[in-house]
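User: Hi! I'm working on a homework problem where we have to compare a predicted structure to a textbook description. Could you give me the structure for the chain below?
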Amino acid sequence: MIDTLNKAISERIGELNAELAQLREGLASDTKNTSGDKHETSRAMNQLEQERLGNQLIQAEEMQLSIKRIAVLPKTEIVQNGSLIKMNNSWYLLATAFGKLSIDSQLVFVLSQASPIGQQVIGKKKGDRIRFNGTEMLIEEIQ
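Assistant: Happy to help. Predicted structure tokens:
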């Protein structure tokens, strides 16, 4: 489970690095071309996109670091960071704010303990219930 998530994050980091490289290459070749307002606007847009991608890259790298810390945590019967939880026939991995991940044809919602659901399930055990968006959710299983 954690390996699949780590692989997905690594792929995302690779994609972001490739996009940044393309932007930098475009900026370098654009510098050799023309000047003027249109040129300056293009350069400014490129810089903004590089900043946005750079921030996403930092977030993805932070996710990867948090996943490495989770991988060494012992499994318990109480929900903690790194727990795989089954509630109302859906799977949730309490790890980092990644979103949906398909693992062996099973959809898993990867969320952080700071998320609304994460805050409610931390410290709970099998059989406990939480309420989220007006729906009662039963913790059916913890792995």
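For your comparison, note the following. Strands lie at 84-87, 90-94, 99-103, 106-111, 129-132, 135-142. The chain is about 50% helix and 20% strand. Good luck with the assignment!
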